[in-house]
Design brief:
This protein is of the alpha+beta class. The chain has helices at 4-53, 85-101, 109-117, 122-132, 140-143, 206-211, 232-237; strands at 64-66, 73-75, 149-160, 169-179, 186-199, 216-225. The longest helix has 50 residues, at 4-53.
């Protein structure tokens, strides 16, 4: 027969062993939860880090343009959508002015002359009038009396800031396409214009306000060939009022 004290000691040891096993099981469970939580935290942190790095790792496509006649290579500028409203409006006016005032077609010559005058300062309008006068041999009316035409395509507009901080200068690169007559081939010349502009009070005359409602003014205009070519058409079409 086993004595009672020995039985009690046996049960105490068994109870202690069971308690140790239960404590060990709870410790293992806590460790497993901590490991799982750390794994999830690492996974979430990695996903967030990857999401934050995505904007820095992107592909920006660009177009390289090669001119067929001159071989000039340039990168086509891409509008990023960050221009201010004033810059966008100025860009439009400069593009419109070059397109209208540097082209020539007898059907629209009178209207183009008047519309361009709506964008000129008083001093430039005097030079514009003298340039178009019939007594001037270099007048477009005399140069193109043979029926030749000129159309213009603006390629780029760049703005410059003076050292004083004033932004009133722009450089416009454009293409002139001259045709000597119906059925003849076009000749292309590249031009660059340096333009000083300003904004003034809109004109009171309704017709002028229709063309220029914001008072945009061309203060100074200088245009020259960007690529010198030995084309008679290009020489005849060169004018700098």
């Amino acid at each position: 027969m086993i004595a009672v004290p020995e039985i009690q000691e046996y049960f105490q040891e068994a109870e202690s062993w069971d308690a140790d096993r239960a404590a060990q099981s709870r410790h293992s469970a806590r460790t497993a939860w901590w490991v799982a939580g750390a794994g999830w935290l690492c996974a979430v942190s990695s996903a967030l880090a990857l999401a934050m790095l995505l904007p820095l790792k992107r592909v920006d496509p660009f177009v390289v343009r090669v001119d067929n006649s001159t071989g000039v290579v340039d990168v086509v500028p891409v509008y990023a959508g960050h221009a201010t409203a004033e810059e966008a409006v100025t860009r439009y006016f400069l593009t419109h002015y070059l397109t209208v005032c540097e082209r020539f077609n007898f059907a629209t010559a009178e209207s183009d002359y008047e519309e361009c005058g709506a964008f000129h300062s008083a001093q430039r309008n005097q030079a514009w009038y003298a340039h178009w006068a019939a007594t001037n041999p270099a007048s477009p009316l005399n140069v193109h009396k043979d029926g030749s035409t000129v159309r213009v395509q603006v390629n780029s507009v760049s703005f410059f800031t003076r050292s004083s901080g004033l932004t009133d200068l722009a450089q416009v690169r454009y293409l002139k396409s001259a045709r000597q007559g119906v059925g003849s081939e076009e000749s292309f010349t590249h031009w660059v214009a340096t333009i000083q502009y300003a904004y003034a009070d809109p004109a009171m005359e309704p017709r002028v306000r229709r063309w220029n409602p914001l008072g945009f003014k061309i203060v100074d205009f200088r245009s020259e060939p960007e690529v010198l070519v030995d084309q008679p058409a290009a020489k005849e079409l060169h004018h700098e009022p």
